[in-house]
Amino acid sequence: MNPRQARSLLSLYAVDVFLDIHAERLPKTCATGMRIRFKRALAELELHVQVQSGAPLMAVGLTRAKDAKREALLRDHIAPVVRVARLESASHPDLAPLKMPRGEPGTQKLVALASAIVAVAADHRDVFVAAGLPETFVEDFNAAIEDLLATLSARSERRGARTGATRGVDASLRACHSCKAALGAFIETEARDDLPLLANWRTVQRIGRSSRHLRKSVTHAAHSSASALTAPALPIRDATRLLAPPEPAATIPQRETVQSPLG
């Protein structure tokens, strides 16, 4: 997210907290379908933000995994087959072309070369097994190639997910602000006689110039009510909190009256 989007997201969190803690003073607004649409749009936005932020980290991890699997393919599979082929090329001339790749070929080129090597080696399985390779060396070789390809595919998918999430952030931000504007109209009408609450709303819903300013807005919204107000039970950034139905209020058991033995 860019700084403007981050400030906008924090202001939306502030709006959501404001509506939660002032639900009793804004019953009509909080009962509208627009309130539900806002919560769902904000939850979708948070999910996009999580993917956008997490996908690059996962892609870096997959790149390191790819490098490790590439090295293992060269060391544990290609090199043993090539060494045996070099020793047996006098008796089996068709094994002479099997050689180690030169330099550092690209991963796709390395995969193509490895596939060709294992295909030739599979036709001479008995020769390689007699030279000391395990009986499953062909299957192990192919499994290493498939594992490397799976890692490459997963990395590409993560990069694609980040691109999709970036577009999703833009779309979800627009949806959230549209809902916020509609909710603002409801609040202005319902709280027209509650000037402190209106002033609070106009401050909270504003996108400030810095995240520090918006954090102050959230704090102001959480503590401005004269009644005892509590923050949401779950973290503000938890999409589950936004989508989950409100929990019924817990009933407080009545304490039994113990009669004094003195009457």
Strand-helix topology:
Blueprint: H1 3-21, H2 27-30, H3 33-88, H4 107-123, H5 125-130, H6 137-190, H7 195-204, H8 211-223, H9 239-243
3D structure, described in words:
The protein is mostly helical and 263 residues long. Helices cover 70% and strands 0% of the residues. The protein has 9 helices and no strands. Helix 1 crosses helix 3 (33-88) and helix 7 (195-204) packs antiparallel against helix 8 (211-223). It is rod-shaped. Mean pLDDT is 80; it is low at 217-234 and 245-263.
Order of helices and strands: HHHHHHHHH
- Count all strands and give the number: 0
What fraction of residues sit in β-strands? under 5%
Spans of at least 5 consecutive residues whose pLDDT stays below 50 are 217-234, 245-263
Distance N to C terminus: 71 Å
Provide the descriptors you would attach to this structure in a database record.
single chain, 263 residues, mainly alpha, 0% strand, rod-shaped
Brief overview:
The protein has 263 residues and is mostly helical. It is built from nine helices and no strands.
